[in-house]
Amino acid sequence: MPRSTTVTYRVYNTPAEVAKAAAELFTSSVTAAANARGIARVAISGGTTPKAMFALLADPSQPFVKQVPWDKLDLYWVDERCVGPEDADSNYRMTREALLSKVPLPAERIHRMEGELAPEEAAARYEAAIRNGFKLEGAETPTFDLILLGMGDDGHTASLFPHTEALNEMNHIVVPNHVPQKDTWRITLTWPVINQGREVAFLIEGAGKAKVLHEVFQGTYQPETYPSQIIRPASGKLTLLLDAAAAAKLPEPTNGVGTLELN
Ligand SMILES: O=C1O[C@H](COP(=O)(O)O)[C@@H](O)[C@H](O)[C@H]1O
Asked: Which of 44, 122, 214, 216 has the smallest count of CB within 10 Å of its CB?
């Protein structure tokens, strides 16, 4: 049975406004976690969508770079392509170029997935790094303060692709995932771990995502086909930051904000 969830979607006119809202969410969430617990643990996505948010966070003319308590942030990824850190497809490389090379985040607080290793090994090493970073014991699993997700036009999120093995994984924190439709392997956080995040948000842009967004949040529950549907945080709350083009098939929001109840 999927968990009942309140989805709050915030709709902005342009991708630039989505990026600003995402930078604000990142800043407030990291600050709140650092104030409450002395440390903020955030897992970010790759692909193209977060790039503009990273650029804003790093921009010295914006307030964010001064506001984020970088010395209290531990940065993780939700997924990685099985390529090296210099590869054009590397999620880490995109983040390094847009953000990490420009902000005072200590190197030891940047926890990248080692996509250059064999997928099994990379996943096992990342799981061990998370267990170590969160000081987990026994069967404990991590609670990230903020998890920022993207969504592909096939409904995948992180590297949880339609009809792939990782959708059945309940016991690990990180797994390798064979993605036959892309003839490749990925490394991904598992969905129970994503659902355990204190705050979970999707950043989604573009007319090409409008149909799948509608299917995921208003269509029949079929997570094997639309893996993003499996994201139902334990908090019962999920946030979507959308541009108007992506939100075109959702109910008209009031003053830019709409809610959907998923049961
Ligand atoms: O392959 C991936 O795709 C998704 C969505 O990417 P986008 O380019 O449509 O923003 C992304 O969230 C994931 O991290 C990435 O590895």
From this structure: 214
State the Cα–Cα distance between residues 4 and 93, nearest whole angstrom.
36
Ligand 1 closest atom vs CA 78: 14
Residues 168-206 have pLDDT tens digits of 999 999 999 999 999 999 999 999 999 999 999 999 999
DSSP E strand stretches across the chain: 5-12, 40-44, 73-77, 79-81, 146-149, 174-179, 184-189, 200-204, 237-243, 257-262
Domains and CATH numbers, the chain: 14-236 (3.40.50.1360)
Kindly indicate whether the ipTM for this predicted assembly is greater than 0.90, answering yes or no: yes
Q: Which helix H or strand E contains 133, and what residues bound it?
A: helix 119-133
* Pocket residue to mutate for ligand 1, from 49, 51, 82, 205, most atoms within 8 A of Cβ: 49
- Per DSSP, the residues of 167-201 read GG--S-SEEEEEEGGGTEEEEEE-HHHHHT-SSEE
